[in-house]
Amino acid sequence: MGTHVSNILCVDDEINVLNSLERLLATESVKIIKCANPFDAITVLEKTPISVIISDNYMPFMKGLELLQKARELQPDTFRILITAYADFDTAIDAINKGEVYRFVAKPWNNDDLVNMVHEAVQRYDLAQAMKHADEAALLSLAQAIELKDKYTKGHCDRVAEYALKIADAMELSDEWKKNIRHGSWLHDCGKIGVPESILNFNGPLSEDNKRVVEKHPRWGAELAQLAQLPRPIANIITYHHEKYDGTGYPNRLKNEAIPLEARIVAIADAYDAMTTDRPYRKKISKKEALNMLHEEKGKAFDPDIIDTFLEIMHKEK
Ligand SMILES: [Fe+2]
Ligand SMILES: [Fe+2]
Question: Which ligand is nearest to the CA of 277?
């Protein structure tokens, strides 16, 4: 974001491969560091923060997998990608299952897939770092970058925070609670980093398959939250903002008070904003209609007490 530059470390003994990775992956905000042998790569890892490391598996002196294990010790948060031949599939899958490697790339690779995978990893890394350092400016700008992917939700995370904080105010929650609710609202959809843009911006009702992909975003977000060691309430908002009070939501079908309070609050703010803005598959409805719909879902999708609080706030404002 802005002047921030992310580093990608590419390691391969073939200079042609390094050059083509650089051509594919370098952007204004992504710098490629090329190393033709694993020892140079280790030196780089010792002093430079690396968002993503991409290493070939077959190199003289050291296997890529071994290098990635070293990378994990030196910079545990770096996303590790292994380039491998078809013959090594089992090794690569094993490495992913053990958490040693984030993804693998089979040679010959598809350029678009590779670029998407790597840039997504960079975005995840940056987000995790910003969360870890609780850097408000960085958090908001990343949340906005996620929104840009989904052009219909521009401003969504800001407005969700605004509505959720109104509820928190009315409930007289502490400043600490409010801070977590603000950050959680900004980040509630951060798992959408993993949802392809073609699905997010699809013009019409989604197929069942695509719906299932979209519905994974709370789980993907939860993984990110864990990676960033986020405070519990923020992680709860990301993970549970699509749970429903009557137990029919996702991902865990939690019911009533089993859904953390912060997630019950943000769920209402999120739904209200979704109804009152245009989405690819439907037009917005009026504020009055939206409030009526929330009222109808009282005790079904939403916590009845928090619905009452929100309706009271919105009626007072009119
Ligand atoms: Fe969501
Ligand atoms: Fe949302």
Answer: 2
Same-domain pairing of 261 and 290: yes
- pTM higher than 0.85: no
Say yes or no: 148 and 275 in one domain. Answer: yes
Domain that holds residue 174: 137-317
Separation of 188 CA from ligand 1 center, angstroms?
A: 6
Query: 267 C-alpha vs ligand 1 centroid, how far in Å?
Result: 9
* Ligand 1 mean position, distance from CA 121 (Å): 20
Q: What backbone torsions phi and psi does residue 162 show, to the nearest 5 degrees?
A: -60, -50
Ligand lying closest to the C-alpha of residue 238: 1
Within the chain, strands assigned E span 6-11, 30-35, 52-56, 79-84, 103-106
State the Cα–Cα distance between residues 13 and 1, nearest whole angstrom: 32
* C-beta of residue 277 within 8 angstroms of C-beta of residue 156: yes
Residue 235: which residues within 8 A CB-CB, separation 6 or more?
222, 225, 226
Q: Residue 156 Cα, ligand 2 centroid: separation in angstroms? A: 7
Are 184 and 110 in a shared domain? Answer: no
- At 9, the pLDDT band (50, 70, 90 cuts) reads very high
**pLDDT, tens digit, for every residue of 22-78?**
999 999 989 999 999 999 999 999 999 999 999 999 888 899 999 999 999 999 999
Q: For the chain, how far is it from start to end, CA to CA, in angstroms?
A: 38
66 is a domain residue: yes
Highest mean pLDDT among 82-86, 121-125, 180-184: 180-184
Same domain, residue pair 32 and 171: no
pLDDT at 153 over 70: no
Ligand 1 centroid from CA 47, angstroms: 37
Establish if 292 belongs to a structural domain. yes
In sequence order, the 6+-apart residues with CB closer than 8 A to the CB of 184 are 164, 233, 234, 236, 237, 238, 262, 266
- Kindly list the protein residues that place their beta carbon closer than 5 angstroms to ligand 1, a single-atom ion: 189
